[in-house]
């Protein structure tokens, strides 16, 4: 009887046990995590989509609106680039979700606080974001929910692609931060990759192995001379177009002359990246006329 009870308790204790391979090793989770700290917006998005509210998150002042609403009241543990180890420790997490590019140097310290999964979600491509959601579904014991979300996005992508104008010219996707930069999202970035999967050709390829976001000057933009420009801006912010907007070189661009300059929210399109953001971005690419190559009026 005693041996049966011991076996039963052992099986019960290990029911939620799982080993997760990630960029920096393997994490053994003896139980399904309940207290999760997220250090990137993609994780915040995916964890919320899976029906779990994190106990802490790394954030800046200008978070994507939908994440701000969904995670209202969740304590901040610092910025994504500089999370506070002390604040993370105080929350007593049983899982930390880190970004490999940003937090590789902190991985050993984070792992001493709680099991830590590190994936390249900030500089990944579209498939990388989907793979990250699959990994989280397994780690959090929510694989069916993750698969449902992945299936929904696959259907949305396929349906949206049917609307794409196959004769449309190439495009450029660029974020315009308040620092006078024109930051290209290459075809290897999540948004650049998504545009290609939706039937639009991104003219910008990666400048280096891990450099799927990089700056370009006005002459570089003119050399590519895209048929369509996708600009990611925050309303009211100073940006590089304040100086480029009246420049004859800018005004001669094909996209500018044909009225095919599309603007979208930078916080959503350039920062969020999780499964909810991908769905919103896909829908906006359709509703704006971008996929259909309809000139802005």
3D structure, described in words:
With 297 residues, this protein is an alpha/beta fold. The chain contains 15 helices and 11 strands. The protein has helices spanning 2-13, 41-49, 65-70, 85-90, 100-103, 107-113, 126-139, 143-161, 190-197, 218-224, 241-244, 248-251, 254-257, 266-272, 275-287, and strands at residues 18-22, 25-29, 36-38, 56-57, 95-99, 116-119, 171-175, 183-185, 213-215, 228-233, 261-265. The strands form 3 sheets. Strands 9-8-7-10-11 form a 5-stranded mixed beta sheet. The longest helix has 19 residues, at 143-161. Residues 6-14 have low confidence and may be disordered.
**How widely separated are the two ends?**
78 Å
Global geometry: globular
Radius of gyration: 21 Å
- Return residue spans where pLDDT drops below 50 for at least 5 consecutive residues: 6-14
């Amino acid at each position: 009887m005693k041996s049966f009870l011991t076996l039963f308790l052992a099986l019960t204790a290990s029911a939620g046990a799982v080993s997760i391979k990630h960029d920096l090793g393997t994490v053994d989770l003896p139980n399904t995590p309940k207290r999760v700290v997220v250090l990137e917006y993609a994780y915040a998005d995916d964890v919320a989509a899976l029906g779990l509210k994190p106990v802490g998150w790394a954030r800046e002042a200008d978070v994507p609106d939908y994440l701000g609403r969904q995670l209202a009241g969740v304590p901040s543990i610092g910025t994504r680039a500089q999370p506070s180890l002390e604040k993370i420790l105080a929350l007593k997490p049983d899982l930390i979700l880190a970004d490999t590019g940003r937090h590789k140097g902190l991985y050993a310290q984070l792992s001493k606080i709680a099991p830590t999964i590190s994936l390249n979600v900030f500089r990944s491509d579209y498939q990388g974001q989907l793979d990250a959601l699959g990994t989280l579904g397994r780690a959090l014991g929510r694989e069916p929910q993750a698969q449902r979300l992945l299936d929904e996005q696959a259907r949305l992508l396929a349906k949206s692609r049917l609307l794409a104008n196959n004769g449309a010219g190439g495009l450029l996707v660029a974020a315009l931060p308040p620092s006078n930069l024109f930051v290209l999202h290459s075809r290897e970035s999540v948004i650049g990759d998504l545009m290609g999967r939706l039937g639009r050709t991104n003219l910008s390829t990666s400048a280096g192995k891990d450099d799927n976001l990089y700056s370009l000057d006005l002459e570089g933009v003119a050399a590519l001379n895209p048929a369509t420009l996708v600009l990611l801006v925050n309303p009211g912010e100073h940006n590089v177009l304040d100086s480029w907007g009246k420049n004859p070189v800018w005004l001669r661009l094909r996209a500018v002359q044909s009225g095919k300059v599309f603007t979208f929210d930078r916080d959503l399109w350039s920062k969020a990246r999780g499964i909810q953001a991908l769905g919103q971005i896909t829908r906006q690419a359709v509703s704006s006329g971008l996929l259909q190559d309809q000139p802005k009026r």
